[in-house]
Design a protein that fits this description.
Distance between the termini: 42 Å
Helix content: over 70%
Mean pLDDT: 86
Number of helices: 2
Largest sheet: none
Structural class: mainly alpha
Strand content: under 5%
Shape: elongated
Radius of gyration: 19 Å
Length: about 80
């Protein structure tokens, strides 16, 4: 039963991280679209693209890291030579 709740918790955290990233990107994109200066809009679109890549990769990394920490076993000692 404890394992089931742990799996559910990790899945919910992963979904929340992904949705939070998407919502931040949506807000940034809406702000960029309201800009009137073409040069600044282009620069902001590039910044939004970089922010999107960073946020989504970071959320996947954190989700995988959390999964490994929760479900990973104890690290094995390196073999002695």
């Amino acid at each position: 039963m404890k394992r089931f709740f742990t799996v559910a918790f990790v899945m919910v955290v992963g979904v929340i991280l992904s949705l939070a990233s998407v919502l931040v990107l949506l807000a940034a994109t809406l702000n960029v679209e309201l800009m009137e200066n073409a040069q600044l809009r282009l620069l902001a679109e590039l910044a939004t693209l970089l922010l999107g890549v960073f946020l989504l990769v970071a959320s996947v990394f954190l989700y995988v890291r959390l999964t490994v920490v929760v479900f990973g076993g104890k690290p094995q000692a390196p073999p002695k030579t």
